[in-house]
Amino acid sequence: MPLVALCLLLAAALPAWAQQTPNDLEVLKKYAGIWAVDCRAPAGPRLVVDVQSLTLQADGRQLRTTAPLSAFSYFGKQPPPAGFDVALLGEGQPTGLSLLAMKDRTGPYLTVDADKPLRKQFGDKALAGKFRPCP
Asked: Which of 1, 73, 87, 122 is the most exposed place for a label (fewest CB within 10 A)?
């Protein structure tokens, strides 16, 4: 019976993994790690990026997505904002997570492109600011 359960679990996970391309994996590895507005504040909001998921943690709440994808054409035909590199997108419940990978004079950072459900769950303060890589 455990073998059947394992097969069902693998079958459920395969569609998400199958959608990721080698380019997605390369981009996600580039941005993998822990990101925060203030890395010295252990209780502050954190973003965790890896090839298996995107995670947002703030005020004891957490949102973890399915296997994320990268999107260089996130803004469609509109020009992206200055410093834009790529969007990192993950599906989650009750909402997904969209992170914009940017770069300025001091280096790379992530911002959260928050929709209404995400703002309701975490609040504007937790989602605001430039999330920088933590050592």
From this structure: 1
CA distance 132 to 117: 24
Q: At 118, which helix (H) or strand (E)?
A: helix 116-122
What's the pTM value of the predicted model, to 2 decimals?
Answer: 0.84
**Mind listing the pLDDT tens digit for each residue in 24-35?**
999 999 999 999
- Which distant-in-sequence residues (6+ apart) come within 8 Å of 100 by Cβ? 74, 81, 84, 87, 88, 110, 111, 112, 113
Please tell me the distance from the alpha carbon of residue 126 to that of residue 59, in angstroms, as a whole number.
8
CA angle 41–47–50, rounded 5-degree value: 135
Q: Which tokens hold the place of 123?
A: 């609040």
